[in-house]
TrEMBL record:
Belongs to the FAM32 family. GO terms for cellular component: nucleolus. The lineage of its organism: Eukaryota, Metazoa, Chordata, Craniata, Vertebrata. This is Family with sequence similarity 32 member A. Residues 16-49 are annotated as: Disordered.
């Protein structure tokens, strides 16, 4: 047992911590540092706004007219679809199926014939 006589029996000590029971120290909030940080952020935002160039539309008049007409047609389609209820859609679909020829009907399959 003399070999183990010099062994330290207490808890391990980590460098830099000092007392373990002290726990973590809370940092004090510095109002001035917050204020400085806000100023830096706002100044950066102002610089970004100044450096951004205005959006330039590089489309030709024909392209702009084309886009305008497409948007207009799309709005008409949306309004047309929104105006019908489900019941009206089903009725229209049934009318369409009635106008089709019998070629599209499912043939009856029977094992007896």
């Amino acid at each position: 047992m003399s070999e183990y006589g010099t062994v330290q029996k207490s808890a391990l000590k980590i460098k830099g911590l000092g007392n373990i029971s002290a726990g973590k120290k809370k940092k004090k909030k510095d109002k001035e540092s917050k204020h400085r940080l806000e100023q830096v952020v706002t100044s950066q935002n102002e610089e970004e706004v100044k450096t951004k160039k205005a959006y330039v539309d590089k489309r030709t008049p024909a392209q702009m007219a084309f886009d305008k007409m497409q948007e207009k047609r799309q709005m008409e389609r949306i309004l047309n679809k929104a105006s019908k209820t489900h019941k009206h859609r089903v009725e229209d679909f049934n009318r369409h199926l009635d106008t089709l020829t019998e070629h599209y009907d499912i043939p009856k399959v029977s094992w007896t014939k």
